[in-house]
Amino acid sequence: MARNVRLMRCSPDDVFRVLANGWLYPLWVVGTSRMRDVSDTWPAVGSTLHHSFGSWPVLVNDTTTMRVWDPPRRAVLEPHGGPIGVARVALDVKARGDMCVVRIQEEPVTGPTTLLPDTVFDAITRWRNAETLHRLAYLAEGGAPGTAGGSSALGHESTAEKEPIDR
């Protein structure tokens, strides 16, 4: 089982606001290239994200199902990676003063990755998940747009309706 840990300069609630917005998934999960749909009930247990991985023109459509949703402490996701198989990804978050520690653990459940020696799977996955936590930190620490604690997509309140722009 591959494990990574990162100290983030935000609260556990900030991390869970990012996780709760399924449309942000490709921004923090390395390898995910686009979202196709987010279940209306996301992030409830059993709800699903529909996304793709790879790069055009070779894209694989897959899904991720929420298995445990216990904010602001724990989320367990089950990505179904098409021909790669199914994995189990647990995110555990603990407050540390005005910051938090986030641990991600990933293990293969089905598919060819279960045949890899643990040292090979762990090395590859730890490398990828270090970047995943790096991206998650950017979103959680910065108050990602589309989260209850975040700002608008422009990074500030839009004034387009309040003040017309002369061009």
Automatic annotation (TrEMBL):
SUPFAM superfamilies: Bet v1-like
Membrane spanning residue stretches: none
Residue span of region Disordered: 145-167
Origin: domain of life: Bacteria
Ranges annotated as biased composition (Basic and acidic residues): 158-167
Entry-linked InterPro entries: START-like_dom_sf (IPR023393)
Protein name per its UniProtKB record: Polyketide cyclase/dehydrase/lipid transport protein
Organism: Microbacterium trichothecenolyticum
